[in-house]
Every structure is written in C-alpha cells, then in structure tokens.
Amino acid sequence: MTAGTGSVRRDPWEGTMLKTETQLAIVMALGLSALALLPGRSFGGMEPADRDLGGDAERGALLYDSRCIGCHSLAANRIGPRHDDVFGREVGSLDDYDYSPALKQSTLVWDVESLDRWLADPEAFLPGQRMNFLVEAPEDRRDLIAFLMRAAQGSSQGSDQAGESTSGG
Known about the structure:
The chain is mostly helical. The protein has 6 helices and no strands. It has a domain at 57-152: Cytochrome c-like domain (Cytochrome Bc1 Complex, Chain D, domain 2, Orthogonal Bundle), CATH 1.10.760.10. It has helices at residues 19-35, 57-68, 101-105, 112-120, 122-125, 138-152.
C-alpha cells in the first residue's frame, strides 16, 4: 500500500525459507491440474468414460455404417484396420494389418484430438497415408468419435465381425 493510508500489507512469506519453493510447488500443482482440463487430452491413452464430447454415439453408429463399413469393421481388419480398440492405440501398430509407411513410422496415439484431425483430413494429418476419405462436418466427426469411444469401452450394440450393421439395423 502507499504511505499515509494507515495500513501496511505484509508479505505472508516474509521470514520463511520455503517462500520460493512453496510458491513454485503451488504454481506447478495448479498448472498440472489445469492441463488435465484441456480439450483433446487423453488420460492413459483413453478418454474418461464420463467425458462429454458433445457427440451422439447412436448417430455415430449410423454414420459408421453408412460411411466407414465399406473399408473398416470394429472387430476385423478389412481394407482398413479394425476399430474396436482404436482409443489409446499407437497409430500404425496392429501387427496383423499392413499399414502405409507413413502410419508405421508415426509415434502418435489415437485419442479424440488425433482422430478428429485424421477424419477431417487424413493426408494433411499424416502425409503418405492411404485413406482417400474425409469427414468434413465437425458434428459428424464428433458423433463418429463418440461411437468409436463407446465401442472401445466395450458397450457397442452388436458386432460387425461378419459384416453385420453396428447400429442394429
């Protein structure tokens, strides 16, 4: 405070040896806590089950059936790799699928952010990949990702292992 106001503000840390260390620890703890709240962050390779992505998994299943099922399946590799356990999986890491060199060399992990970027424009995300398809609408990408997340958590409604629809129809 300024002189003449009658009050003096004291530093609560004055006279302590832990001033710098304690302040640093508090700032670091708050910073690390804030990181967990950032969008697109994965936790152990998997998004939290209760995280609201704003996506509709039911609509995502319909989109998957109409746009993805020609090349992909949840349970089996087809023209493209299977998707049942895509969340938390390193890009290009399935031993039983022949990925492009671009995907084999990637060190990325599939999470909400990476899947969104991939679906928006696969070639811009990982040049040299082989998927010639993109999902332009952000809402469609959110819904597909919500469906894939649900499938990865084992609560998918049905199997497309034999080419069956994932949406039950």
